[in-house]
Structures are given as structure tokens and as C-alpha cells.
Amino acid sequence: MDIKQIQELIKFVSRSGVNEVAIEQKDFKITIKTNQTPTVITTTVPAQPAAQVLPAAPAPQPVAATEAAAPATEDLSKYITIKSPMIGTFYRSSSPDKPSFVNVGDEITTGKVICIIEAMKLFNEIESEVSGRIVKVLVDNSSPVEYDQPLYLVEPM
Question: Which GO terms describe its biological process (predicted)?
């Protein structure tokens, strides 16, 4: 199994919502586990004396949590969190050459499309259920997201 196949397997596991996948072949064994924390791959190959632990691409949620934790004096309780209604890939615009649906500082109303989440080759427009001003985008464009993962912080109006 080469690195590209491993990366595709990681993407599949993150999109499917499965918590653990283990594959064992003649000279190769791989286990991928996820639990809302960064994905870790444990690989054991007989030719090497010890197991290798390779970090996968960082999960978007811990990155956002790190950024949100940086300004310790900021009170986040006054903001509304818009969360992902499904597992999939988060897109800020309808195509790479189009502008983002919303940016920091934009005012949104109930029913406004704020992003797209692709799940199983279907592109689902996600509409806001609140009105307010976007304070922070918590997920990078083209990143996998989990069900109920925070996407945006909104200051209510």
C-alpha cells in the first residue's frame, strides 16, 4: 500500500463516520482510528524493527480550537455557533473561481446559504438558521467535517 492509497483511505474513513478501520495484508498492517481528535495511523512492517506512528493531515476542529483558545480574554459565550448538519467536505463557495458565500464581518439572515457540504458526491447547500454577523470561520475550505462540528461563530443581532 503506497502513501496515496493510505491518504485516500484516511479521507474515506473521515467522511464515512467510522471510528476504526484495520487492514491486514501479507507484509502490511494498518489501523486508522478517529474520535473527534486528529487521526493517527499505526503501521507495522516486518522489515522494520519497531512500529511507526505517522500523523495524518490535521483535523480541522483541533486547529480551530487552537485558534479560538489563543485570545484567552475573548468571551465566546456571547456568540452562536453554526454547526455542520452532516459529515462531508466543507466548501466556502460554489466553485473555486466564485467568491465565498460568507466572510468574517458579513451579515447573514435566516435562510441565507452560508456554505456547501459535499457528501457522497451530492453538494448540499447549508442555510443559516440564525441572523447575525459572522465573527469567525472555524473550518478551512475543502476540509472534511464531522456531524455537529462547529463551522462559524455568529454574533446575534
Answer: fatty acid biosynthetic process
